[in-house]
Design brief:
By secondary structure, the protein is α+β, with helices and mostly antiparallel strands. It has helices at 26-38, 46-65, and strands spanning 3-8, 11-16. The chain has 2 helices and 2 strands; from the N terminus they run ββαα. The protein has a two-stranded antiparallel sheet.
Length: 71
Amino acid sequence: DGLFLVEHNQEKIKLSLPQGISDSYDWMMEDFVDCILNNKEPRMTGTMGKQDITVALAAYESAKTGKCITL
């Protein structure tokens, strides 16, 4: 439904995602807002995101070339 709760200063804030954002991104958006409001580090770091992209790009390259890609 695109709604999630974030706690800030012991107050629960209800937020909604922009239309078209899938539920699979709800936890990331919730974490992002929570980090901003509560000055916390995100669960998903930039390094982790870069690793995910590297694996995805290697999978595309492998599919395109038919070869095993070593990471």
